Structure formats: C-alpha cells, structure tokens
Amino acid sequence: MKPLEHLIFGMVFALILFVIFPQISLIGFFLIVASTVLIDVDHYIYYAYTKKDWSLKNAYNWFIKNGKKYHKLSENQKKDIYFGICFLHGIEAIIILFAFSFYFTFFLFIITGFIFHQFLDFIDLTSRNLSRYKLISLTYSLFYTKNKKLIEDYN
Ligand SMILES: [Zn+2]
Prior knowledge:
Shape: elongated
Bound molecules: zinc ion
C-alpha cells in the first residue's frame, strides 16, 4: 500500500475516532494520522542503511522496481525471497511504545496508528498474496529471511 493510501485511510480512521472520542483532541488526531503514515519510514531506513544511499526518490523507485520484479516470479520462486526488514512493523515496536506510554500517554496514539497501519497492510498483503512476515515480529522476520534472498539479488 502506498503512503498516500495510508494517509487517506488514516485520516478517515482518526476522524471516526475523534467523533466518537472527542477527548483524544486534535493532538491525538494528528498523532494517529502521522504514525499511520510514518511507520513506513522503516522501509526507507532499511534501503538507506543497506544501500548506503539516503535519496528518498531512489528508495521509492527501488521498492517499485523490485515490486514489479516480484510479480513476475512464480509462486515457488516467491517463497525464496524477501523484501527487507521493517523494524517498526511487528509486535516489538508496539511493546516498546507501550512501555513508553506509562510515562507519556501520547504514545498510545502512536500505537493506535501503528496497529491501524498494519491492519491495512494485512488486508493489502493478503489480497495480493504477499508474505506477511513483517507484521508478526522483528525477531520472526530475522528468522524468516535468514535463508532467503533479498529480491534485488534474485536472478
Ligand atoms: Zn507498512
């Protein structure tokens, strides 16, 4: 799912929450929308870190290009590859944010945005028959990808 789609769905979701629970205030509304979109910054950081290239445009093109490459593969080939590690997706990030929320309650809004984002990712990945390893946990992702090839290196 693209950032713009996450933004639109995130705004609708946060608006519904704001109408039902006005006490979340505008700060809550904006934090939910922002975290729904910004969680995907982990894709960019993964790209920048592994490729040593901080160009946002190159990162975006890299994911588009490899997405197309992926769709040309057979179902069997798809089982051998992965797209990267997304450290903000999965249960660990939520546990850490939850711990922070004992000190600063606004972290609960960020958790709400993260969970909603991954709910959308789940529907999106399932409908496109893509692997959902990143939604489970970072630890699981590291095990899952261990004996697989990064899509880019797959010939
Ligand atoms: Zn995502």
